[in-house]
Amino acid sequence: MKYGVAIFPSKKLQDLANSYRKRYDTKYAFIPPHITLKQTFEATDMEISTVAERLKDIAKKFQPFKLNVTKAKSFQPVSNTIYFKVELSEELQELHVALHDEKFCKSESEHAFVPHITIAQDLSDNEHSDVLGQLSMLDVSHEEEVKRIHLLYQLEDGAWTVYETFRLGAE
Amino acid sequence: MKYGVAIFPSKKLQDLANSYRKRYDTKYAFIPPHITLKQTFEATDMEISTVAERLKDIAKKFQPFKLNVTKAKSFQPVSNTIYFKVELSEELQELHVALHDEKFCKSESEHAFVPHITIAQDLSDNEHSDVLGQLSMLDVSHEEEVKRIHLLYQLEDGAWTVYETFRLGAE
After folding, report:
1. What's the confidence (pLDDT) of residue B93?
2. Which residue of A lies nearest to B11 if distances are taken between CA atoms?
């Protein structure tokens, strides 16, 4: 089964992201607005309870931390994906490292961690320019506190369901 | 903000439900297949942490329990909603009672609890007959274990995000 780890930001930020995603994100219906901490990885039904326990332990070691969204950006020329840029804080970096340590669970090495909330993807070049143009003029700066992380799994149709959430710093 | 409490069944059952929901459920994109334990209720940002604490306490008092899906049924003549019927076990009944006790959080009285997984809604009468006819011939009997319950909140576009999950019987 396919799993992933993500942060769901506040309703306020999700509502803002969804006002764009509704029109511009082909994955809109598959998952609420989120910040991916660990990309899709495979685990069996047996393995996942161990993974969940380890994730619980990792979450315990972190305290709730501030998350800052600064502006809308694009992954061009790599892809036409537009996103809200999330500041790479020390805590996000450490969380990312902990989730990619082999003590947590094996996973492919990946690109540098660029924390973000996707708001548009699979756009044509014209759409991409239009949407990015609109969004560049928008002040999306926003700060909030991250209190929990989510372990999710993917259904056959591509949609994601939450398996379990873990409070940061919880006893 | 609008909150609700639900059980997400196993991936296997969700995949089966979604194979129908994709075509026949207008709320398909808003939430994965689920069993509602407590209908939408209002809570402020302040109240919800207390609600979450109480839900954690309630979850602790229950042990994981068996969930049985028996067949596809319809809410007609009340509505054209088709669902997988979930057997009303003692545990489900007690969980439902605990979530509607005023010690948990105030909520409107509602109809008798008919645990179910919606697979089709807002169908025309013809579609309803067709789909129900197809599904009646299908053996959907299924048993699994419920290990956790989910507290969700609703975004402005109608979609639901998981706020937190609670393990049944957890320390």
Report:
1. 95
2. A155
CA closest to A13 among chain B residues: B155
For B79-89, what is the mean pLDDT? Answer: 96
- Interface confidence (ipTM) of the complex: 0.85
Tally of CB atoms within 10 A around B133: 9
Q: Is A34 a catalytic residue?
A: yes
**Domains of chain A: total:** 1
Using CA atoms, how far apart are residues B44 and B104, in angstroms rounded to an integer? 15
From the list B150, B159, B164, the residue facing A32 with the nearest CB is B159
- Collect all residues of chain A within an 8 Å Cβ-Cβ radius of residue B161: 8, 11, 14, 32
Pairwise CA distance, residues B140 & B70, whole Å: 6
Three-class secondary structure of residue A87 per DSSP: coil
The reply to whether residue B159 touches residue A18, judged by beta carbons under 8 angstroms, is yes
> What is the average per-residue pLDDT within B5-20?
96
Task: Examine the residue annotation and report whether B34 is marked as an active-site residue of this protein.
Answer: yes
User: Is the pLDDT confidence value at A74 over 80?
Assistant: yes
What's the order of all strands across the beta sheet hosting A116-120? A142-146, A65-74, A82-86, A116-120, A35-42, A2-7, A148-154, A160-167
Q: Quick: pLDDT tens for A8-37.
A: 999 999 999 999 999 999 999 999 999 999
B22 Cβ partners below 8 Å, 6+ apart? A157, B28
Is residue A1 within 8 A of residue A43, CB to CB? The reply is: yes
Q: Looking at residue A63, which CATH number applies to its domain? A: 3.90.1140.10
* Rounded Cα gap, residues B42 and B149, in angstroms: 18
Which domain, by its residues, includes A139? 2-167
CA distances from B58 to A16, A107, A137, A164, A166 (A): 33, 36, 47, 17, 17
pLDDT at B110 over 70: no
pTM here is 0.91
Name B84's bridge partners: B72, B117
